[in-house]
Amino acid sequence: MTFIAPRVADKKDWLSGETGDWELIIGLEVHAQVASKAKLFSGAPTEFGAEPNTQVSLVDAGLPGMLPVVNEFCVEQAVRTGLGLNAQINKFSRFDRKNYFYVDLPQGYQISQFEFPVVGEGEIEITPEGGEPVSVGIERLHLEQDAGKSIHDLSPDETYVDLNRSGVALMEIVSKPDMRSAAEASAYVDALRQIVRALGTCDGDMEKGNLRADVNVSVRRPGGELGTRCEIKNVNSLRFIRQAIHYEARRHIEILEAGGSIDQETRLFDNVKGETRTMRSKEDAHDYRYFPDPDLLPLELTDDFIAKIKADLPELPEARKARFVEQYGVPAYDAGVLTADKATGDYFEAVATGRDAKIASNWMMGELFGALNNAETDLADSPISADALGGLIDRIADKTISGKIAKDVFGKMFAGEGTADEIIERDGLKQVTDMGAIEGFVDEVIAANPDQVEKAKQNPKLLGFFVGQVMKKSQGKANPQAVNELLRQKLGL
Ligand SMILES: Nc1ncnc2c1ncn2[C@@H]1O[C@H](COP(=O)(O)OP(=O)(O)OP(=O)(O)O)[C@@H](O)[C@H]1O
Ligand SMILES: [Mg+2]
Ligand SMILES: [Mg+2]
């Protein structure tokens, strides 16, 4: 298989093949687990990592005669998410049975929403890395229950079933086929993740599988008819999403250019090989025989219910980003990084308030994130609190220390040696601003370098040499501005 790089210059992710260009089309179905302590239709707990089959009510085990009762909290979270996606909230929706047989589905059907989802069309704005913002349409969001889990690797000839996940509430968020590159697809999932986390409706933890994507991919000639899609199930990291898309796009192009056609298929992504492969083809495509679940009444939401949720919505990442640019004057790129999650934004606001915001953002994005990264830890466990970083920045602003010395102080703060003030005091780092003392250093340096003084009169660039010498004499503590001024005066530059 030949690897064809996307033509970044075109901005769109057009792929060149042997016979011309192809346009990539991607639509995603994201399954986001509702952050609820109880399941969608039972009171069983949903906690992650429990012993197998310890969180299973009779309803989740699909025992005959058991009746589901809808969890109102989950409905509320779906509506909240819908509002966060700028989407239509449907006051009438209905639960349907999606029938299929599998060992991890004890009821023999999944309760889902088909014809009448709780949330309809919406739209979010995303910014792919290095690209311009694009808007992605949301087709719908519906509530459904998760299935159990089959465990194949405990024994060579037996399959075990863990029903802890059975009945856990999921929101399936279906996008329109609006994405045109792997970068856009991963930016979309990232944006969704940020939104649900800001809303608190889903933990968005892809490693734990509480946010995962079915990735639909097709290719077409630029501007032509949509091609046949293949759906890659359950991809659970942004990197795997990008890899799966690239692999799948190349596969489609190779087949089409050789004169073949694409079969609509459900495929799996093998993250070790970086390949997708057939899981089931159209021949055994499911006929789910959806019908309204007779055990559940339709959901009818009142205006009041929706209005209350709306009144309680937090500021979402996109809005916060715009506010950071506007209110604090930081560049859009910084604002994007600083609003990637709530805690980072809160930390920034605490440091920036009452201080130079650009300096606050530089210290966070440079020194702090660098140190956290090296220590393989994150902001939640930062040894330097927002207050403490603010305290350090204050000492630069009031010229107690220079920016250069501040970096050393930062290192010591990060190592837990104390606050900026304590370290400055302890190590005697206070900047020398006493003009008399600085003049002493300057005179000494001039006296010691008569040749250089003569040269400097022809070549003002030598000023740097003198500044360096004076700073060295003062052990880095002389106020650099004062040193510069005095030297210029004395050297007549
Ligand atoms: N030609 C296409 N190329 C790429 N993506 C497409 C194409 N046509 C549709 N899609 C995307 O495929 C997804 C279809 O999801 P939807 O949930 O509606 O149906 P499904 O996959 O048939 O159902 P199920 O939930 O049972 O998997 C949407 O995200 C849509 O944008
Ligand atoms: Mg779907
Ligand atoms: Mg699908």
Comma- or semicolon-separated keywords:
single chain, alpha+beta, Arc Repressor Mutant, subunit A, three-stranded antiparallel β-sheet, binds adenosine-5'-triphosphate, binds magnesium ion, nucleotide-binding
The Cα radius of gyration reads: 30 Å
Shape: elongated
On the 0-100 scale, what is the average pLDDT?
92
Number of helices: 15
SSE-based structural type: alpha+beta
Cα(first) to Cα(last) distance is 67 Å
Task: Give every kind of bound small molecule, once each.
Answer: adenosine-5'-triphosphate, magnesium ion
| Helical coverage, percent range | 25-40%
Low-confidence stretches: 1-11
The domain count comes to 3
* SS elements, strand count: 16
Name the beta content range: 15-25%
Major beta-sheet overview: 9 strands, mixed
Domain Asn/Gln amidotransferase: 346-491
Family: Belongs to the GatB/GatE family. GatB subfamily.
Protein name: Aspartyl/glutamyl-tRNA(Asn/Gln) amidotransferase subunit B
EC number: 6.3.5.-
Description of the molecule:
By secondary structure, this protein is of the alpha+beta class. It has three domains: 8-307, no CATH class; 317-426, no CATH class; 435-491, Arc Repressor Mutant, subunit A, CATH 1.10.10. The protein is built from 15 helices and 16 strands. Strands 1, 2, 6, 7, 10, 11, 12, 13 and 14 form a nine-stranded mixed beta sheet that branches. Strand 12, helix 3 (238-257) and strand 13 form a beta-alpha-beta unit. The longest helix has 20 residues, at 238-257. It is elongated, with a radius of gyration of 30 Å. The termini are far apart. Mean pLDDT is 92; it is low at 1-11. Residues 25-29, 174-177, 216-218, 226-227, 229, 231 line the site of adenosine-5'-triphosphate. Its EC number is 6.3.5.-. Heterotrimer of A, B and C subunits. Residues 346-491 form the Asn/Gln amidotransferase domain. Keywords: ATP-binding, Ligase, Nucleotide-binding, Protein biosynthesis. It is an enzyme of class 6 (ligase).
